[in-house]
Amino acid sequence: MATRVRPSNKRCAVIGGSGFLGRHLVEKLLDRGYSVSVFDIRQSYELSGVTFHQGDLCDKQALLPAMKDVSLVFHCASPAPASDDRRLFERVNIQGTRTVIQACIEAGVQKLVLTSSASVVFEGTDIKNGREDLPYAKKPIDYYTETKIEQEKLVLEACDKEKGFLTVAIRPHGIFGPRDPQLVPILVDTARRGKMKFIIGDGTNLVDFTFVENVVYGHILAAERLRSDSPICGKPYHITNDEPVRFWDFMSEVLVGLGYAAPRYHLPYALVYGLALLLWLLALILRPLVSFKPTFTPMRVALAGTHHYYSCDRAKQDLGYKPVVSLKDGIARTVQSYPHLRQGA
Ligand SMILES: NC(=O)C1=CN([C@@H]2O[C@H](COP(=O)(O)OP(=O)(O)OC[C@H]3O[C@@H](n4cnc5c(N)ncnc54)[C@H](OP(=O)(O)O)[C@@H]3O)[C@@H](O)[C@H]2O)C=CC1
Ligand SMILES: CC(C)CCC[C@@H](C)[C@H]1CC[C@H]2C3=C(CC[C@]12C)[C@@]1(C)CCC(=O)C[C@@H]1CC3
């Protein structure tokens, strides 16, 4: 009878490892002596110590080779939140995550770490220092978040100490850093089109923005602390910079760092939200005839005009988490990493 190779605890797989967070995670895992197999729908780089497997995570047969002899899997793949494609979110984030769980169990993987999102509890109204025991949003802000909720439930419910399959979910919020494809590029694009002049509301709302290396650190701590005798099995953890900041101060610092003017004029929140809703409806109705994507979607307006920051006390206590890069340094490193997005470049 063929003996089964015992998976090395320094061999792991990163699903979504070609993406923004995934690639930072892969780089840190290599630094810490892991060998990594990446599974992603695209291959965006080459790196020694990394084996790439290209495929759709909804396809179990494609996933299995990436999990061979692997004891630990990170799942940080998702379609981009900006997409409005409900069926795609359902297929990848819900059905695909079921497939990932089945593949893990079949391949003998012992630990699964999911990248969820703090937004699973956000309904577009203020959250101040929200803890993990807040209920899931009954009215999530968009399809993306709706499917992130189902995805998190699936992964946490799959945790089974008896069977030796352990799971945990990391809930980051507003990830930023070098190579981020959405926050800074969208901000700069909005500024270049002259639309970044206005502050929505009074500008005092506090929000978490989390430097990508802190998010990576939270994932690795969770993976390394995930044992059948640890309190973290089957639980979600907020990972933030633990420095809530005024949304508009953060945006202004990034904009000014890149040579653009900071927004100055205030507009009432209700007015902008109403207009964004109207535009969104119009875009929906006209979709068969013309396709346009409004910059200020109701989701973005809600994120820009309300308080939403989260306590990471549970991560501090159970994981020994503490941010490794301050917000100030994170912003400086991010701004430096985008020379091509500077004003006049
Ligand atoms: N960015 C943020 O602020 C936050 C992100 N998150 C979560 O963090 C995770 C990583 O996000 P981020 O790095 O920003 O996103 P990215 O889009 O940069 O990375 C996701 C990766 O997954 C890939 N992917 C998408 N669909 C599939 C599929 N069917 N099969 C295999 N791979 C697929 C993407 O490919 P392609 O690009 O071709 O689609 C991409 O390479 C996600 O789960 C997201 O929900 C949570 C909170 C905040
Ligand atoms: C046009 C402007 C008013 C604002 C531009 C910045 C936004 C693109 C970002 C500000 C907060 C970000 C955020 C996310 C995406 C990018 C922002 C809207 C997420 C929705 C990404 C996915 C998540 O899971 C939650 C994030 C919350 C914060």
Describe this structure in words.
The chain is of the alpha/beta class. It is built from eleven helices and 15 strands. A seven-stranded parallel beta sheet has the order 3-2-1-4-5-7-12, with helices on both faces. Helix 3 runs parallel beside helix 4 and helix 7 packs parallel to helix 11. The N terminus is likely disordered. The site of NADPH dihydro-nicotinamide-adenine-dinucleotide phosphate (NDP) has 27 residues, from helix 1 and helix 3.
Produce a short descriptive summary:
This protein is an alpha/beta fold. It has a domain at 8-180 and 208-244 and 309-325: NAD(P)-binding Rossmann-like Domain (Rossmann fold). It has eleven helices and 15 strands.
